[in-house]
Amino acid sequence: MSNDDGNSIFDELDSRLDDFFADDELSFDESSDIHSDEMIIDSSDEPKVKKSFPDTQSAKFHKNPQGPLDTLKVIVLEMDWELTDENLNKYLEEIGRLKNQYKDDRAIYLFFKLHSSIGTYMLHKKVRAHPDALKFLYQVFNSLEKVTTKNLSTFEKNKMILKEVTNFKNLKARMFPNSYSSVEVQSFVPEQPTAAVKPDFSSLPDDIQKEINDYIEREIAQKIEALKKNFK
Amino acid sequence: MALINPKKKEVQVKIVYYGPGRGGKTTNLEYINKKFKSRIKSEMVTVKTYNDRTLFFDFLPFDIGMIKGYTIKIQFYTVPGQVKYNATRKLVLRGVDGIVFVADSMTLRQEMNIRSLENLRENLASFNKDLNSIPLVIQYNKRDLGKQGIPILPIESLEKDLNSTLKASYFPASAVTGENVAATMKKIISLTVISLKEKLDLGGK
């Protein structure tokens, strides 16, 4: 087999595994942390962040990045111009740095987790990425800018991130239509102990089934022998 | 050795999660089974004793789809970690294609990790397999316990104990929170399928 074949198998496998484990980047039990009792979500409130990105004034950030998101904004602008491995890697690197910087601010941190998830997806998928993925990235960036620059309350921040998480779930449903039967995305909830579940052995390979049966028979025989000895 | 059905264009791969008792092998599979349930489309079989310990093994089968025209079916097994169940561990290891060694990061379990890895090496040797040449990923589980004040070993120490000669890929992880559980699984699938490609000329002419 040629090296090309080898590489193509590797790429195909990598892509398949990325698809399979796609939503592990954003743990939904983490995003559900923001559903605090004090939060009341007004579902009638339509997303207000509709402005397309970037605007013409943002070019100034190239000259003098000073705010916490300025470097990120420069990279996002570059990505809007041309999407390359280089700027995607720079983007993920910057997101990693900001995640660390904002680790104590739950809502903002979750914004960066969203960025990280979508950026990783785009880096892996490249031209095969869903066309809405980049739009979503810009939209999240716009929301993030609002959250970091305006003096919003925790409630308002949580409301915005919750909206983006919902949008992300909807986008994922479009990205992986075969994996998601509906918009509802299953969140991870610690499972009840499986001991109560009656095992179905029929799906096991034959030799394993036989081994189980033999084992059980041996165990029963030993118990009977032990009982016989006790009664002697 | 993987089962290949050239007629059906199907390859069945066996991956075993191995490690000391109470190390989190079952929890790894439970996390995957729960989190990716909609994609796995098959049931996890688990056989436990009354006190929630793995008696035989856990079994989680799933397909990752077609690679180069072959349907790749992966079967994940765990083994019972307790010392007395070595016969079952050997049975489960028969025909293994790839291994995840789940080490327990707790300081108290340092000796158990080393013994379990040695036991793995011996059991593989009984099938004429060498731990150094089989696809292997080491997972340092229970990293979350450090935050709860429970003494855990530093990664460097675990690496020195378990991986200084093997030089296998490794992941610090928490099967309870899901941290690096999928990453561990992705890595072992990838290593195993790639190793089979070399052995079987998978997808070759």
Detailed description of the structure:
The complex is a heterodimer of chains A (232) and B (205). Chain A is built from eight helices and no strands. With 232 residues, chain A is mainly α. Chain A has two domains: 3-175, no CATH class; 199-231. The termini of chain A are far apart. The model of chain A is unreliable at 26-65 and 180-198 (pLDDT under 50). By secondary structure, chain B is α/β, with parallel strands linked by helices. Chain B has six helices and eight strands; from the N terminus they run E-E-H-H-E-E-E-H-E-H-E-H-E-H. In chain B, a hairpin with a 5-residue loop joins strand 3 and strand 4. The A-B interface holds A 1, 5-6, 8-10, 12-14, 16-17, 20-21, 23-24, 27, 29, 179-181, 186, 188-191, 193-195, 197, 199-201, 203-205, 208, 211-212, 215 and B 30-31, 33-39, 42-48, 50, 52, 56, 59, 61, 64-65, 67-68, 75, 88, 91, 176-178, 181-183, 185-186, 189-190, 193-194, 197, 201-204.
In short:
With about 230 residues, chain A is mostly helical.
